[in-house]
Amino acid sequence: MNLPADYHLHTPLCRHAVGEPVEYAARARELGLEEIGFSDHAPMPRDDFDDWRMRRNQLAEYVARVEQARRAHPGLRIKLALEVDYLPGQEGWIRELAAAQPWDYLIGSVHYVGEDWDIDNPQKLGRWQEHDPAEVWRAYCERLTRAAASGLFDIIGHLDLAKKFAIYPAEDPAPLFAAFWAAARAGGVAIELNTAGLRKDCREIYPARALLAAARAHGVPITFGSDAHAPGEVGADFEQAVALARSVGYTQRVQFTQRRRALVPL
Ligand SMILES: [Zn+2]
Ligand SMILES: [Zn+2]
User: Fold this and answer.
1) Could you write out the DSSP letters of every residue in 157-187?
2) Closest ligand to 156 CA?
3) Burial of 104 (0-12, 13-18, 19+ CB in 10 A)
4) DSSP string, 93-142
5) 128, 174, 213, 224 - which has most CB atoms within 10 Å?
6) Which pTM value belongs to this model?
7) Residue 1 in this model has a pLDDT that exceeds 90
8) Mean local confidence (pLDDT), 217-238
9) How far is the CA of 115 from the centre of ligand 1 (A)?
10) Ligand 2 ion: Cβ-proximal residues, 5 Å cutoff
């Protein structure tokens, strides 16, 4: 099987990943991937916002390390991208980031449901106990919808990240995504099949099959990402992700070059 491009790779600049971009690229070649994309955690306007992203003055170094991988692996197409946190009020900063380098795409992700709670952070797992899961999922989905509608992003990351620790609302969360589909269509964004979920407590690709089927029904295109934080995770479980995409009717995925998108066969 020809594996799709892995568009969600991190680098040690985010302070919680290991391995240089050249090593991720080498692993991709081993697997026979033709294309990958680095999308490390983008800086925030304030470097002390949290401790799991590159700092503002490291953007140029990030680009240089990706370019080093390009030089070392000329047979591999290597895209330059960022995973950008969406927080309401940060639109100006995100536009500034978008203009800073010739990005191939920007992944917009919601990790924060408030100013200081990144719901996927294991160190803040206790906060889940203080809230009704339905409330957290609702707040998460509202932000996700705003991210999609903002027009700032090409891809929305790990659609149902709220399930990471397998904490679910009492009722089926699918209706919480209803507004998201319209926003995704209007904002012209794709979603990713992110296999990191298989390595978390939820033991399931992001998004769940029912959500992916809804995405397909609403004409939302897809990309694939391992969310690798180590070279060994590149392309992880991609056969399973492709099978999932096909099972709900996808026959194409999107490719990005300098933020222009093209549909290619799956
Ligand atoms: Zn990360
Ligand atoms: Zn993320």
Assistant:
1) -STTGGGTTS---SS-SGGGGHHHHHHHHHH
2) 2
3) buried
4) HHHHHHHHS--SEEEEE--BSSSS-BTT-GGGTHHHHTS-HHHHHHHHHH
5) 224
6) 0.98
7) no
8) 98
9) 18
10) 109
